[in-house]
């Protein structure tokens, strides 16, 4: 059973999302919150698999709520998905940097919404290649000399290669085909890289890959 926490300051939207989720046999809404601070408190209490968090709320916004959830070792298995009206913007990018697994636009189709919740619960990032390109082109533009040391020196060559391919939006199967390895081996490389870089999920690997200079927009 996928346990979901809804965090949004608009009761009508929460009710709409809950109505969609409650009819699914494999999904359970365990709690609702009207602001980020309450959302963090309920995440600690209920330990959901997925927290659907609005980006703009009173008291505490979605970026800070994401940051607090990601910083708490007890909440390591909570996958935060940002809800936004506007698509990819600076607030969403900051949430991805803070540890969000991805984001959804609130006018998403119901079927796509349910699929996204299941994807997030598996620990996969909600970053399609088209979204990755927008993220790169708009927000990861610092010259190499200003980029932070993200720990890439601790990665093996194969791990660096898989991280670069993840940053280009490839799936495990696509990475395996390109590197001529099994999907399980590709997954192992990715998991080891995430552990060494202290990345919560693939979304953070994407951000780290570009911010470190491992991959740059012109490489695409």
From TrEMBL:
Residues annotated as domain HTH luxR-type: 148-213
Highest taxon of the lineage: Bacteria
SMART domains linked to this entry: HTH_LUXR, REC
GO biological process: phosphorelay signal transduction system; regulation of DNA-templated transcription
4-aspartylphosphate: modified positions: 54
Molecular functions per Gene Ontology: DNA binding
Domain Response regulatory: 3-121
InterPro entries: CheY-like_superfamily, NreC/VraR/RcsB-like_REC, Sig_transdc_resp-reg_C-effctor, Sig_transdc_resp-reg_receiver, Tscrpt_reg_LuxR_C, WalR-like
Keyword Phosphoprotein on entry: yes
UniProt KW keywords: DNA-binding, Phosphoprotein, Transcription, Transcription regulation
Annotated Gene3D superfamilies: 3.40.50.2300
Alphabetical list of PROSITE patterns matching this protein: HTH_LUXR_2, RESPONSE_REGULATORY
The protein, known as: Two component transcriptional regulator, LuxR family
Protein species of origin: Micromonospora coriariae
